[in-house]
Amino acid sequence: MNAAVLQVVNAPALPATPVRGLAPVALLPWEEAGDYSGLHEALIAHHAPEGPVEEHLVEEIAGILWRKRRLYAAQAAVFRHRYAAFHENRHAAGEIIRDAVLPHAPAQVTDRPSTALAEIIAEVPGDQESARAFDRDCGRIQAALGDLRRGATLGEALERLPERVRARWQVTDTDAYPDSVEGLVAFLEQAALPTLQQEALACRHAGDVKAQLIGQTLDVQRMESLDRHETHLDRKFERTLAMLVKLQELRLGRRA
User: Fold this and answer.
1) Do 161 and 178 reside in the same domain of the chain?
2) Are 56 and 81 part of one and the same domain?
3) pLDDT tens-digit map of 107-158
4) What's the domain count of the chain?
5) Three-state SS across the chain?
6) Cα 153-171-134 angle, rounded to 5 deg
7) pTM for this entry
8) Are residues 188 and 117 in the same domain?
9) Average per-residue pLDDT in the chain?
10) Are residues 165 and 213 in the same domain?
């Protein structure tokens, strides 16, 4: 057994918070005892158990439902972990956007869309509204290019540009795009305008991008083990609930 495995095996257990004496679940340090108690009390109010056996079965059901909540959190964590890997890899993020948009606008998609995944996944007022904002910025760039071709100065052209384009121009490599009218024209035509056009396209198809992201971030092996555990919890829930209902029916039948 290597050192890394030994370290995990010998690591101290996480402190658990006991809940209500014989509760079948121990809370993790970041879980709220009040949340579990609320779930348990709601089940008690619904099933109205009588006697220690029925009370135990209700506690079992509460524990199963609580573990299912953890399971859903674990499934979300798997997606978040994979998403972070794609988000940090600009090339991989560009491929996701390209693959999502390509069936809808093959003539408009570049080899490597430069839009960050975070900009597409983030909550925005509306995808179409964001796309129209990008379109307006593209129009301002084209207007600035027209001014430059008609003899406008560098400062005059910069005044017409959107703030985000001016900010990017300020940090652009001067070797690639010199601080001159010619350099600004090249920057706008080769970098700024194509980027904004791709961002507008990605915003229009943000739903497709999100669907593509889910498909490509799916970790089948890890999700399969979580799915098996969910099936186990579902079967345990069904058995426990059926046992509780049967006991209550017998009890009520005896009273009748």
Assistant:
1) yes
2) yes
3) 555 554 445 545 554 433 346 777 788 888 889 999 999 999 999 999 999 9
4) 2
5) CCHHHHHHHCCCCCCCECCCCCCCCCECCCCCHHHHHHHHHHHHHHHCCCHHHHHHHHHHHHHHHHHHHHHHHHHHHHHHHHHHHHHHCHHHHHHHHHHHHCCCCCCCCCCCCCCCHHHHHCCCCCHHHHHHHHHHHHHHHHHHHHHHHCCCCHHHHHHHCCHHHHHHHHCCCCCCCCCCHHHHHHHHHHHHHHHHHHHHHHHHCHHHHHHHHHHHHCCHHHHHHHHHHHHHHHHHHHHHHHHHHHHHHHHHHHHC
6) 75
7) 0.55
8) yes
9) 79
10) yes
In this structure, the answer to whether residues 193 and 129 fall within a common structural domain is: yes
Q: How far apart are CA 226 and CA 220, in angstroms?
A: 10
Number of Cβ within a 10 Å radius of residue 194? 15
**229/218 Cα distance (integer angstroms):** 17
Structure tokens at 14: 């996480």
Looking at the domain assignment, is residue 94 inside a domain?
A: no
Which residue's structure tokens are 């964590």?
77
